[in-house]
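Fig. S4 source data, part A: sequence.
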Amino acid sequence: MTHFASHPLARSAFRLAVSLLILTAGLLTVPRHVALAQAETPTPTPTPTITPTAEPPVSGRPLVVFQSYSTSPSTVRPGSDFEIGFRLANAGEVKARNIVVIFTGEGVLPRVNGGVLAAGVLTPGASTNYRQPMSASGGLSAGSLAIVSVQIEYTDEAGTPYSAAFSLSIPIGSVVSPGGVPGVPKPTATPSIQPQLLISAVETDPLLLKPGTRFSLQLEISNVGGMAAQQVTLILGGGSGSGSPDPEGGEQGTGGLTGGGGDFANFAPLGGSNVRFLGSLTAQEKLQANMQLIVNSSTKPGAYPLRLSLSYLDEKGNRLTDEQVISLLVYAPPRLEITTYRPLDPFFVGQPGILPVQVVNLDRNSIMLGRLVVGSAEAMVENGEMLIGFLDPGGFFTHDAMVFPDRPGPLQVRVQVGYTDDFGESQFVEQIFDIEVMDAPELPPEGEGPLPGEGEFPIYVPAETFWQRVLRFVRGFLGLDSAPLAPSGPEGPMFEGPPPGESGPAG
């Protein structure tokens, strides 16, 4: 061991190891004043590097576009009718709702729907085919292009509106001659767009139709075509014009109308026939028509279709007929009699009065009734509701309601009986009772005078006879009550003897 320590190389290695240990300890243990100095000395802050972040994605929207379109027939000729077949697609990311397509143009006009087509809903990526009837004007020249403007309006799921505009080019071909040779026009007048009549609104007066009801049927008729309709005739139950066919394809009106083959089992005309002449109706014009009808007494409750025909002439004299159907609802409410089952007692202000209500079933069939409700805007009502239930024909239901009038004078009390009609809707039958309310009688102060109705009539006591006096004497002798038999007390004045105007007993 002494030999190893005395070796110079060993001593050098030992010194190097000790130096390394001291240096390491100094680095790990920093004096407190040095650490504070380092904390107080500001160091430059490195500039942060800005990393571009992705913006949140913008919510998608619907985008309705035209995928394709074509015409049928493929060659559109001046003065002819054709259809535009087109396909709409939703190229957006959100469902498109309430899609409406509007057609306008020069030289080509829409038919049937006035150029407004409801296209419904398109989900993202979906597409649907549609067709729009059109007519080409006779003034178009062969070889030209007719431009159809299309406006598409729609909304997204939140109701935000969107719109888009498109232009469709329709090539116009040559007019075909009677021999089938293109380019030679027909030797006839220039055809134009036909009129078309629609029943746009229906109303009845009264609104509630029952078996046996006479009512007024009010119709609003619109000409949605591009030509005037002349000699418009309304035919209830259906019918058409009669006449010889026209060589050009139309039907010439000869004044004859066939309207007698309609169905009048449920509704029949009153005050005239089922045919009404309405006059002329220009393009895009409306008129009002009115007919008096009656519901058959044997008609059952339900919804009944009513066929109507509109016969008219176009500007070329061709007879045209538009057949349409409307629906009328027939109800059969219960036949009830709402009365009182006895005469009413007098009603006084602030005092309860009884309203004896009675409901009688006058129908031939049994009925199920709901609640009976008694109410008034000028009085408080207690015990004013009661469930009636099932009533046989001729059966009745009674109920006593308590009415507290607030003021004197006439008083209206409303009585309603509920039921469910044949279409599942809640209805009621109502009856109004007119009651006369009187002022309450005034009472005198306590201890002052008699109550109302007291002391108004004197009480007469007949005079005591001889035998009555003998009987009193005997009763007193036996120790019994011998007081006079005449009444006494505050009931009123007493007079002994017969009433005035009558003579006493003889003897």
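Fig. S4 source data, part B ends here. The mean pLDDT is 77.
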